[in-house]
């Protein structure tokens, strides 16, 4: 009898993420995944119809988990500094605890699946990350209305607010910064960068 | 634990162009829940059925001149 086994389902998902990060999406097949898991080829098909179904389901599940992690303690009414600090804390924690998932989403975003996911990510209620988008928009709207920050194109805001964080995390995951210098992120470095970002954005 | 005996899996040599033929064949048999993973090297045919047996599906597919065996 073939039965659903939560541990096996988790193993399949975890290995799928690892395999896609390591070898890319193009060459990824369920056969290769089963071999990587040391399970029979049929097992992943118990949980997923095919390769597309597997990728879509993982993105939906992990997207929902990421949304929850990013919104933890986040108040759209918070001041610029407090709200941004929570965003930095949440994103930092998520990326440190899930180093592969950042790379997994990068792979998805530079693949043929991108269009499909952009449609899911269009902000309509109930869609992937819609709550997150709503709260972040409200937060920016509020801080501009209170005169804490000038109005600016969203891309400008995002680049100033988060690029330093993601650069530091990239150095950290590589273990090296510019010129191959060994690097490891610390709370001190993180919050020093954060203070600069707040200075740049705040009126 | 949930039972998954109704998911029947086969290794085949079916191609994208054969899907129409299989659709007609399966429609006649009343099989609606099925798909082929053409990305996979085994071109896995996945059929959801609570009543049919592997051997019956294999006979149907082979009857159309395709290769088909149970995926283990």
TrEMBL record, chain A:
| InterPro entries xrefs | Homeodomain-like_sf, HTH-type_Tx_Regulator, HTH_TetR
**Signal peptide interval:** none
Is this entry keyworded Amino-acid biosynthesis?
Answer: no
This protein's UniProt keywords: DNA-binding
Which residue range or ranges hold the HTH tetR-type domain?
6-66
* Regions recorded as binding DNA: 29-48
Pfam families recorded = TetR_N
Coiled coil region boundaries: none
Recorded superkingdom: Bacteria
List the Gene Ontology MF annotations in alphabetical order. DNA binding
What is the name listed in the Swiss-Prot or TrEMBL entry for this protein?
A: TetR/AcrR family transcriptional regulator
Q: Which organism is it from?
A: Pedobacter miscanthi
What is the organism lineage in this UniProt record? Bacteria, Pseudomonadati, Bacteroidota, Sphingobacteriia, Sphingobacteriales
UniProtKB/TrEMBL annotation, chain B:
Q: Organism's domain of life?
A: Bacteria
* The name this protein goes by in its record: Uncharacterized protein
